[in-house]
């Protein structure tokens, strides 16, 4: 009987230690079972005896998310709204693009914590989802039955889109050569360029990719020594400080055109990459910056059966 009473008391203590606040609009203080309204977190007034509702690291993040009293800002595809914490953190709804995962984990746990001490319980789930997405991308970037190992088929070429590797331009070229190829060049017509860009965008590749162009003897050349064509359709649009006039047979007015598709002037980078932020148009980049290799195999793909 004594043992039973001890176990009962112990179970009650454990239950009380893990007790949640009776209302979904309340959350427990960090070091005791006192509850405070969620709308009062980081309002400049201490409501918890341990000051956990005004803890600095938590409030620094809370302030950036706060919309109006008791709500968070939510950005979905560029559209902003104010949501209650429950709506903001609801897993069944499409998540906000700027979702603060740690704040949602703290609200789910029902106890205040310093922001940098909040443990994401769902991190393993996210990692597994990321792993599945990674495999899907691998199948369209470095694997294909028509191509050598580490290459996939895009149009008439075998390419290695090594999106998960980050190296400088020289290292990227060495990697390609090590695998029987070289950095990709665009010398066989713009159709090849369009096919590759469509492939990258279709499969959600977001890496910047090194290709085989660089400045040699003050001239933009491909790795085989041939000159790189400047302008449409390959290069990113750049603003040029000089005034340029379009070639027109008939012109009523002289207009100054400051945008050109070409490397930046004066030169900023000496090596070429396909830049994700510029819709995979060619960009002049610092040769020692970290980008992903985009290789082309030395042997053309075999015909499909």
From TrEMBL:
Keywords recorded for this protein, A-Z: Disulfide bond, Lectin, Signal
Lineage: superkingdom: Eukaryota
Presence of the UniProt keyword Signal in the record: yes
Gene Ontology molecular function terms on file: carbohydrate binding
Signal peptide start-end: 1-19
Domain C-type lectin, residue spans: 154-296
InterPro entries tied to this protein: C-type_lectin-like (IPR001304), C-type_lectin-like/link_sf (IPR016186), CTDL_fold (IPR016187), LDL_receptor-like_sf (IPR036055), LDLR_class-A_CS (IPR023415), LDrepeatLR_classA_rpt (IPR002172)
Descriptive protein name: C type lectin containing domain protein
Organism: Penaeus vannamei (Whiteleg shrimp)
